[in-house]
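Hi, here's the filled form for the chain we discussed.

Project: internal
Contact: R.S.
Residues: 165
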Amino acid sequence: MLIILAFIILFHVAAAILLFVATIHNRWWVVSPAGRDVIYADLWYSCNSTCYPVENSHTADAAYLQAVQATMILATIFCCVSFFVFILQLFRLQQGERFIFTSIIQLLASLCVMIAASIYTAQKKSFHVPSLQEGSYGSSYVLAWISFPMTLIGGLMYLVLRKRK
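And the returned structure, exactly as it came back:
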């Protein structure tokens, strides 16, 4: 049982780290124009040698970008909260009970990641100025999609897991 518990904790921590990196790191969109510096764009900034805020990110035209920002932050918060709830329930639950509350919070994190990555996929062209539209997805975008099944599997593991001696 101790090995399973260690695996679950490591799996959850790995999912949280992926969410943090995907939310913070500036590699959601990569543009490499011929003969110039590579430009990296994330949810907040576009960077080449210097960083500048995403154009019109504070306006109603960028509502899609704001939705992606909000859901990625929510996913990260939900993942961290579910870990702390799991640790609390580990010591508070009676033997034989399930980690339902932890599972619900982790599944909400999974849903938020899926929503954020799906919105970004569907609306990526409207996020960036015309000079940045000819690019490709970056590593943070890929990490967001990888963290989706990890948080989903983690939530399902907590749903099935019973507290044993």
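Let me know if anything looks off before we file it.
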